[in-house]
């Protein structure tokens, strides 16, 4: 008790240099915890991109590829699924609902996705959250479009605006569907998923703009927007479709059945499993960040070591006085270690405080920018482990000055080295 | 204590030599001090003065001979027992920088008792530790209003008197003073010595006072001189 009081008073006496040490440890603690937190949030955000969808079905391809183009709108499908196959599979009795999607067009860098009204009803993200409209309504006319939050915000669209879709992914004048403009009828709330960067139209709309196209080029016969409506706008093929089952217990059976479908080579993936697999491949970045934060911590601890070692010289007198009044060499060691504990403990507390402070400041910005809702969760097991390792590391490092002080206090004895 | 008790300090053919040295840093044939005796040790820099004090305080053990304090052979004690022995029976006053700058005057004095249950018990015999400390400080002419002040604002003379109070609290049998007056001017030095003698006499404490200043020797009952030694290690810290 006396030692703790002495350590506290002595530390307070040298507070300026010690506070700087506390700060450097706090920063590394914030970094370590921050990286861990961001990683977890990014992971849960990624894994929450789709929920309640039991299977995603597309033409035969690798699972990651199918996931990337159907959910993240990255890359392209190698093949389409014919409408007949879709209808046949959708009719399976285990299947409760399906949402067809058709990709391939774009609007000023944002992907266009053709789908049906069921999309708004069945698509769920995060914790089973449905899509909600911020303004307007769902599409019901052929030339209606509903924009994701980012599309509307970055391009400055509001309900009632007219937009022109482009064929393919590159906006080029010759490939624009200028003759058939779409009207923005609805804008979705921010979700933090790729939905925000998607232009949603009906399957019929996709069909209509391509009715006078053949094999990726405009055909000789041109039909205007009204003329196109005269035709049967049932698509001949779609890119993929999402499946909701009557019962999750059917998942593997239905997946196998679709994978073994004879008339057309098909792939069915379980989004959660494929997302998790995908996460593993990209979490290397996070590991690198973690290693970097680890080095920052090592630098912080070395800084602490330097500070404590340099104060040992000023404390030589203090230690000689303590020895003279009967403090044992072990007391000197404990005094140094206590100081290190105080510093590192204060550093951890400050680091955690900084983390939550940053969280409080950054939360609204991140939610607005990226749609990721950072949770105010209390420190979890990993983060507590990080804190404990920081403290243990500091004590380990602290053994060096403690040992030096011990040796010196034995050598110096009552001699006052001034 | 009566005269029939063992000598408070008893040095018997004590020699000390640093490892690797050719000559003894300290060599004392025989020295016995009874309770209440005041010994003046004259030793210029490099005379092994610090080593001599470290030997007396049990921080170093002699390479030859025996040191008995209050009848206890220091060499027979383990290092931590020696630390404890020092805490219980010896008070030390240094040349300078005696006090911990982050404690108040009173805390500096009472801290001695924290490491010595015996001193603590002695100090609380009549009243509590703080009261004994205040009493000591008062008798050393340190006014009450200074007691809770930070020691960094004190003059050197005041600091040295606080150091005496710290060394004497809990009634140690031996007081070791290492050049306690060297940082004081002549007036302050004399006043300091008056108070020091007044207190050690009141407590019949055995005083070992080291100084290079031969003038002071006349105030002591006994005096010895440490001879110049070739060692430079022991003088390393002295200015």
Report on this structure.
- Chain A is built from 14 helices and 16 strands.
- The two termini of chain A are 29 Å apart.
- In chain A, a hairpin with a 2-residue loop joins strand 12 (213-214) and strand 13.
- Chain A is 53% helix and 16% strand.
- In chain A, the strands form 4 sheets. In chain A, strands 1, 3, 4, 7, 8, 9, 10, 11, 15 and 16 form a 10-stranded mixed β-sheet that branches. A two-stranded antiparallel sheet of chain A has the order 2-14. A two-stranded antiparallel sheet of chain A has the order 5-6.
- Chain A folds into 2 domains: 2-46 and 283-412, no CATH class; 55-269, no CATH class.
- Chain A has 418 residues and is an alpha+beta fold.
- Chain B is an alpha/beta fold.
- Chain B has a domain at 36-47 and 79-225: Rossmann fold.
- Chain B contains 7 helices and 9 strands; from the N terminus they run E-E-E-H-E-E-H-E-H-H-H-H-E-H-E-E.
- Chain B has helices at residues 49-56, 79-89, 105-114, 117-123, 129-139, 156-168, 186-202; strands spanning 9-16, 26-33, 38-42, 64-69, 72-73, 90-93, 174-178, 206-211, 222-225.
- Chain B has a 5-stranded parallel β-sheet with strand order 6-7-8-3-9, sandwiched between helices. In chain B, strands 2-1-4-5 form a 4-stranded antiparallel β-sheet, covered by helices on one side.
- In chain B, strand 4 and strand 5 form a beta hairpin.
- Chain B is globular.
């Amino acid at each position: 008790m006396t030692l703790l009081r002495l350590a506290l008073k002595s530390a307070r006496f040298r507070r300026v240099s010690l506070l700087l040490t506390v700060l450097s440890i706090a920063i590394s603690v914030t970094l370590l915890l921050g990286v861990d937190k961001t990683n977890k949030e990014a992971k849960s955000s990624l894994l929450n991109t789709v929920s309640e969808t039991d299977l995603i079905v597309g033409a035969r391809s690798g699972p990651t590829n199918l996931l990337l183009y159907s959910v993240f709108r990255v890359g392209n499908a190698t093949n389409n699924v014919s409408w007949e196959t879709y209808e046949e599979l959708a009719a399976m009795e285990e299947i409760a609902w399906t949402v067809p999607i058709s990709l391939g067009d774009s609007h000023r860098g944002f992907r266009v996705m053709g789908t049906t009204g069921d999309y708004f009803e069945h698509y769920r993200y995060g914790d089973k959250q449905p899509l909600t409209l911020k303004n307007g309504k769902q599409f019901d006319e052929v030339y209606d479009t509903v924009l994701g939050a980012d599309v509307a915000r970055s391009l400055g669209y509001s309900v009632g605006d007219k937009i022109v879709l482009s064929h393919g992914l590159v906006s080029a004048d010759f490939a624009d569907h200028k003759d058939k403009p779409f009207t923005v009828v609805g804008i979705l709330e921010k979700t933090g998923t790729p939905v925000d960067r998607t232009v949603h139209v009906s399957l019929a709309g996709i069909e209509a703009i391509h009715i006078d196209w053949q094999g990726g080029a405009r055909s000789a016969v041109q039909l205007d927007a009204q003329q196109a409506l005269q035709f049967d706008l049932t698509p001949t093929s779609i890119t993929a479709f999402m499946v909701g089952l009557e019962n999750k217990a059917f998942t593997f059976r239905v997946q196998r059945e679709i994978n073994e479908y004879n008339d057309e080579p098909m792939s069915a993936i379980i989004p959660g499993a494929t997302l998790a697999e995908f996460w593993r491949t990209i979490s290397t970045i996070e590991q690198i960040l973690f290693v970097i934060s680890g080095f920052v911590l090592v630098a912080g601890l070395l800084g602490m070591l330097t500070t404590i070692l340099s104060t040992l010289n000023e404390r030589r007198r203090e230690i000689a006085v303590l020895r003279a009044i009967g403090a044992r060499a072990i007391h000197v060691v404990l005094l140094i270690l206590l100081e290190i504990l105080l510093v590192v403990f204060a550093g951890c507390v400050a680091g955690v405080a900084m983390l939550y402070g940053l969280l409080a400041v950054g939360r609204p910005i991140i939610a607005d920018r990226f749609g990721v809702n950072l949770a105010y969760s209390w420190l979890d097991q990993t983060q507590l482990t990080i804190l404990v390792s920081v403290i243990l590391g500091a004590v380990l490092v602290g053994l060096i000055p403690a040992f030096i002080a011990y040796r010196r206090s034995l050598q110096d004895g009552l001699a006052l080295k001034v | 204590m009566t005269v029939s008790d063992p000598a408070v300090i008893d040095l018997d053919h004590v020699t000390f030599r640093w490892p690797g040295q050719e000559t003894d840093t300290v060599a004392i044939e025989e020295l016995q001090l009874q309770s209440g005796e005041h010994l003046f040790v004259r030793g210029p820099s490099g005379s092994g003065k610090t080593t001599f004090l470290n030997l007396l305080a049990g921080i170093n053990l002699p390479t030859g001979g025996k040191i008995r304090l209050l009848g206890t052979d220091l060499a027979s004690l383990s290092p931590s027992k020696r630390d404890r022995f020092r805490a219980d029976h010896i008070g030390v006053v240094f040349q300078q920088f005696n006090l911990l700058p982050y404690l108040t005057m009173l805390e500096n004095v009472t801290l001695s008792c924290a490491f010595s249950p015996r001193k603590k018990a002695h100090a609380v015999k009549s009243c509590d530790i703080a009261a004994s400390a205040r009493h000591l400080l008062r008798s050393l002419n340190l006014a009450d209003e200074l007691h809770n002040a930070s020691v960094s604002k004190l003059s050197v003379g005041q600091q040295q008197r606080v150091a005496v109070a710290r060394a004497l609290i809990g009634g140690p049998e031996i007081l070791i003073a290492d050049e306690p007056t060297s940082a004081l001017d002549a007036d302050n030095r004399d006043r300091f010595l008056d108070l020091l003698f007044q207190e050690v006499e009141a407590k019949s404490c055995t005083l070992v006072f080291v100084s290079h200043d031969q003038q002071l020797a006349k105030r002591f009952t006994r005096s010895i001189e440490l001879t110049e030694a070739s060692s430079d290690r022991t003088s390393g810290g002295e200015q």
